[in-house]
Amino acid sequence: MALLFVSHVDDPELWRAELTGHVPGLEMRVHPEIGDPAEIDMALVWMPPEGLLASLPNLRAIFSLGAGVDAMLRDPTLPAHVPLCRLVDSSLTATMSEYVLLHVLKYHRYQDRYAQDQRHQRWQLRLPGPPATTRVGILGLGVLGSDAARVLGGQGFSLRGWSRTQKNLPGIACFSGEAGLAPFLAETDILVCLLPLTPETTGILNRDLFAQLPDGARLIHAGRGAHLVEADLLAVLESGKLAGATLDVFSQEPLPEGHPFWRHEAIDVTPHAASYSHPEVGAAVVADNIRRFQAGQELLHLVDRARGY
Ligand code: NDP
Ligand code: OXD
Questions:
Q1: Which of 35, 37, 129, 136 has a 20 to 30 Å separation from 226 between CA atoms?
Q2: Mean pLDDT, the chain, as a whole number?
Q3: How many secondary structure helices (H) and strands (E) does the chain include?
Q4: Is ligand 1 within 6 A of the CB of residue 67?
Q5: What distance in angstroms lies between residue 7's CA and the mean position of ligand 1's atoms?
Q6: DSSP E strands, 111-194
Q7: Which pLDDT belongs to residue 127?
Q8: Is the CB of 180 under 6 A from ligand 2?
Q9: Residue 27 alpha carbon to ligand 1 centre in Å
Q10: Residues identified as active-site
């Protein structure tokens, strides 16, 4: 039996070298060179073409190369009986926390303003208060959100977080559910979105939500493009309700040429690059799951399909 590798962004040969180091004898086939589909029992995938996984009659485990599995869950043909595991690895987590820290510091230290000042040849000193005077709010306190909070806490920022179920995390004011959203937003100067995309979170970053933030708040969005109502963001930046946004994910990726976000003075764009897995780290986690699968043991990081993440 064999593992099918499908990704347009990950290097299959790096993954093959790492995986076979951990699981000697593993046969890995790289899409589209599938061979006999009946010989595939596991798939390691990022955004597989719709219908591909359903076409593998003996598929018994799916491992995602990404943390978010919303695209796969949108495939109506995704085999319902096959366990789906998302990627949770220390490199993916650490790189996301770096991204969040980088952009929180950018806003806290007025680097966005200095970039504008430079474009206008304006020499203006802007000195922030200590980090504790900047209130960062994180939507999503899962693997990524809770680690980003931990890293920001180490820098002394004032922290709050929002999740579906109530958390109790040291040094973080935790809010949950619909009732917790308004008080969470009311004290958030920099809003970080690290939610999964589900029917409940689609379009959550909209005009009504932005209206509940303090005037001049900033957004750092690394969840999924469909969380954001793009026209609402442009409107609140125009009105001054929001002072800036850093966007890593978009409803259409790559962000189309000519899209207003590209040239907006108050928007920083990154190409879905906030976090990434180092193959040597990610492969160890996937290999662990492959060995569990081969031994008939319970898999790690299983997606709860009913919950959507
Ligand atoms: P987790 O599943 O570990 O955490 C998700 C968090 O979101 C949990 O705290 C969960 O609450 C909360 N949540 C889910 N639904 C709701 C809701 N309706 N209301 C309030 N809170 C909710 O995911 P990760 O932290 O690993 O990843 C989060 C997302 O980050 C991914 O799904 C993906 O979209 C994005 N991502 C983006 C990357 C990039 O490069 N831009 C890279 C990797 C991931 P609870 O704890 O109560 O279940
Ligand atoms: C993602 C990832 O889910 O890159 O976006 O892991």
A1: 136
A2: 98
A3: 10, 12
A4: yes
A5: 22
A6: 135-139, 158-163, 173-176, 190-193
A7: 97
A8: no
A9: 32
A10: 224, 272
